[in-house]
């Protein structure tokens, strides 16, 4: 029987240990079909290289579905809007916001179908409006109705996810919808925009998207969360340095189209319609501004009967430690 070479044994143990560590840090990320510069990094595998992990990317049609997956433990990192985030925090789910992905502008909007007889906001009374419930679109729709002094009970609000909205729109089953791409692009082809989330933000109803992480995963793998945040912020910085040059690179546009489902012609407007906070802005944003925004959103959701209560403090659900 030959003796084991100590060096070979050490090397084998090291490789086994490295393989175990790699396997231990594999994780699942829930993403949505929003248009943002970081999708180029996603397509390029930059997140995998930075985190030195195998990432399973799962596409979701709405934030409430993401929250359910994160709460179950099936997903460790997820992309959600401020409304489902507020609902999740109010339920005291074990999550924390570690990055503001975008301050929503023209990327979400209320669109009325041509031929539905909607020429002004007041014409929405008696009409069917589709929106994914407890989404940023839902929050914005209710805020818009409040702004126009329209009682929500005077319209029929249907709970549909974006793919179902597209199908219902094409059949003529709905009169209007508050949604994001790719459904937004489809509806705009045969409809008109009544208001955007950017316009609502100016009258006191801002919405944003954020990256959240399970607290247990973040506590165990803080270096992975930091690396994930850095890749995202580097992508934002690359875009904001020269948006025109960035868009002139057809490869960037193609990757956005592939992962979002948006039309090529709509990409510039959708990117310009949102604000992608840089690293220097994140530290400040991931403090009192975000905590207050979640509180305000939760308060609004309670008024609408979507959550039972408002927590006295939402600070435990927001953390700037991963973008320091």
UniProtKB/TrEMBL annotation:
Keywords: Signal
Signal peptide: 1-24
Main location: periplasm
Domain Solute-binding protein family 3/N-terminal, first and last residues per copy: 26-243
One GO cellular component term noted in the UniProt record for this chain: periplasmic space
Protein's cellular compartments: Periplasm
Assigned protein family: Belongs to the bacterial solute-binding protein SsuA/TauA family.
Protein name, as recorded: Taurine ABC transporter substrate-binding protein
